[in-house]
Known about the structure:
Rossmann fold
Amino acid sequence: MTALDGRARASSSVYDGDFYRRHREGSRASARAILPLVVGWTRPESAVDVGCGVGTWLAVLRELGVEDVLGIDGGGVPPSLLEIPCERFLARDLTAPLDVAREFDLALSMEVAEHLPESAADTFVASLTRLAPVVLFSAAIPHQGGINHVNEQWPGYWAAQFAARGFACLAFIRWEVWEDELLPFYYRQNLFLYARKTALAGDPRIVAPFPPGPAKLAPVVHPTLYRKKVKAALEAAARRTPDGTSRG
């Protein structure tokens, strides 16, 4: 069977209309915190979101004046819940090369790559780098945990994939949002910008210089995730009996 986006391949009882309704407002709040920073640095006139869900991040971009948008995701997204016009949404297999016969100023992929098999990682990054000279990217780290996470990787893994296609990693955005308690830990931990090196050298679509920031792509764990994992480990240990079995 052809694999679609990991969320579409997951059980429909998990990624159904209720799932998108439950997460919509949290997603909108995150987009409203992060995207003004990105728009201020890159001044995009067009954007594509690969793994867009119901299109909430694109809807926020439209609030910010970026009207030319396209959302791409697997076939499990309920059309009635889309927050962008239906003609601006494409259902595609994200494990296969994406060719939409145009380029955008900005591409987004937010906590999507970990849902796709590792065998598709190279193809997925190749698609993103064909779509835009600047990519806002976030993907789960090892042992982060989540529904249908099949390829959790440290940021350096993805940075190497982008670098092979002439894209530099700009890590400063992670530190810009690191302490924003209103954002989910995974965005604060996993958020990076990748830019085509020729774009950094003067592409007219990038009219504002990127601010300086730490250059090292450290494989860090956010304290919020660390505390969550330690708490779970301590609780599991407390349930164990002297013979090593669990009390349930």
